[in-house]
Design a protein that fits this description.
The chain has 153 residues and is α/β, with parallel strands linked by helices. The chain has a single domain, classed as 3-Layer(aba) Sandwich (Rossmann fold). Helix content is 41%, strand content 12%. It has a four-stranded parallel beta sheet, with helices on both faces. Helix 1 crosses helix 5 and helix 2 packs parallel to helix 4. The longest helix has 20 residues. The radius of gyration is 14 Å and the shape is globular. The protein starts with 10 loop residues before the first strand and ends with a helix.
Length: 153
Amino acid sequence: MVSIASKREGAVISYCHIDKRYLERLRVHLTPFLPDKKVVYWVDTMINPGSKWRDEIKQSFDGAKVAILLVSADFLASQFILENELSPLLVAAQSEEVTILSVILSPCAYPHSELSQYQSINPPSRPMSALNRHGREAIWATLAEQVKEALSR
């Protein structure tokens, strides 16, 4: 995704690498929306070898219209995520340039974080780790729909 200050587009996914299995399930749910470009997203696994990875991350986050956050205790404890990803997203969300869509993966301090001002897809009291497969799949399906809708606005 190319950063265009005046025109934000697409979604960016922020997650802690420890939670990669959740990212893979999210990607499955986003796949049906990719062929007709109803959903376009960027995630750090798309960084090519030899690229200036910090620059790519900054450009992608600066240009995103939607931020998908996969929130866990590890996510909230990551200094890199807090400084390089979350901080610019929260600034952009304050001026309504970006929509924040958080999924609570496991019990964490979400209610005590700056993210708590934004409604999460699932409540912190019902993290993905506490749900059965059907419950988790329902959350992923809801998130994919919300991403599609937010990108079409």
